[in-house]
Design goal:
Elements: H1 2-7, H2 11-23, H3 29-41, H4 45-59, H5 64-76, H6 80-89, H7 95-107, H8 111-124
Length: 127
């Protein structure tokens, strides 16, 4: 439902629904990721970052799903510097992590950096 609200441009409904979800006190880390990506559709980058911090405090560390959600928000808004900073915090990037990173550089027209990270991904996954 969070994604549906975001896709239809209903930010107030998104916020209302998120309040209901949070009141259950059993919010999964994956749900944080979905909400972060939904906020990203509205350009609410700071709110997405705050949610990432909440998820990190809840789990003691960020899991790949939350990292990837935040990467997706940054890439969607051309914030590649923030992507690079976040990549430094990721202990073990996943294939999805590299997908966001590489696609972000391709969108920015930075083919050299995209290829550099593609090579890094190939080496880390022994492809």
């Amino acid at each position: 439902m969070l994604t549906v609200c975001a896709d239809h441009g209903k930010k107030s409904e998104l916020k209302r629904l998120w309040s209901c979800v949070q009141s259950s006190n059993k919010v999964s880390v994956c749900t944080y990721g979905v909400m972060m990506e939904s906020l990203g559709k509205f350009g609410s980058i700071e709110e997405a970052e705050d949610l990432a911090s909440k998820a990190e405090r809840k789990r003691g560390r960020l899991i790949a799903r939350v990292f990837n959600a935040l990467l997706n928000v940054y890439v969607s808004h051309g914030r590649m510097e923030a992507v690079e900073e976040l990549m430094l915090r990721i202990m073990k990037p996943t294939a999805v992590t590299y997908k966001h990173l590489i696609s972000g550089y391709l969108k920015m027209g930075e083919l050299d950096k995209a290829l550099e990270h593609l090579r890094t991904a190939r080496e880390s996954f022994n492809i």
